[in-house]
Amino acid sequence: MIKEFREFSTGAILNIANESLLEPFKTTKPIGLFTFIWTKDSEAHFEVDGVPFTLEGNTILALTPVQNFRLIEGKNLIVYQFNREFYCIKDHDKEVGCAGLIFFGNDFIPIITLSENEQTKFSLLHEVFLDELDTKDNIQAEMLRMLMARFMIKATRILKNSSDTLKSEASKIDLLRHFNVLVESHFKEEHSVAFYAEKLFKSPKTLSNTFAKFKKSPLKIIHNRIILETKRQLLYTDKTAKEIAYDIGFDDASHLSRLFKKITSLSPSQFQKQHKNSH
Question: Radius of gyration over alpha carbons of the chain, in Å?
């Protein structure tokens, strides 16, 4: 069962389905769209960016389009997928937009746990979604966007209320989130903490001290994003190591190779040889 919405004037896409929507992801590939995966009465098993994990029943996982995903096992799932043209072109509060708390960036994968009360509320919202997808008129697009905004607001509230860190360190979390969003936009051209600190009107030392409270390092976040992109291109493109290095902003491929080996303990060619056959 896959229900689809297409808006040709904007290129907007919304898909709502069960686990059949994830069938193409039996092998690892970028998920391609903003995605919510909602387990109902049983757990599911996935792999995100090479890391396997189990999603318990009655929880929602949020993924950004660039994340690599593989479905290992999952039944009775509800899956929502949409592109930037569907939702992100609209003006939304910073916490519930596509750069909000849910789609935090590459260093954070949010899992929203639903209480019994919230399960009922989300199930009712899901039924309204399905009904609206069957209602073809000139306000359907706006109605579907309003429903997605409601879905994301509810999910964001649960995420905030379930995390003591999010509640007590809101301003610092916001800074970390903005840093991740900036890195996502600029990591191929800008590799220094100083660039991002200037964009955020902070000093590099302030960023380091703030992120240390979350056991993170601004430089490590940048490096991890570079390495993640290098892995993706090694596995899913035919680019040479030199071409990949140039694409990610390195004039000398040996510099990227050293960074890659420092973080992964493998050279790019060793990583590619070890993993490409399995993908």
Answer: 20
Residue from 15, 19, 12 nearest 37 by CA: 19
Per-residue pLDDT tens over the stretch 7-53: 887 788 999 999 999 999 998 888 989 999 999 989 999 998 778 88
Q: Containing H/E element for 2?
A: strand 2-7
Q: Does domain 2-164 have CATH number 2.60.120?
A: yes
In single-letter form, the type of residue at position 247 comes to D
Look at residue 253 and give its three-state secondary structure. Answer: helix
Residues of the chain with CATH 1.10.10.60: 170-275
Among 116, 229, 130, 213, which residue's Cα sits nearest to residue 166? Answer: 213
What contacts 70, CB < 8 A, 6 or more positions away?
25, 26, 27, 28, 29, 46, 47
155 and 102 Cβ atoms separated by less than 8 Å: yes
* CA-closest candidate to residue 35, choices 101, 86, 82, 84: 82
Strand partners for 55:
44
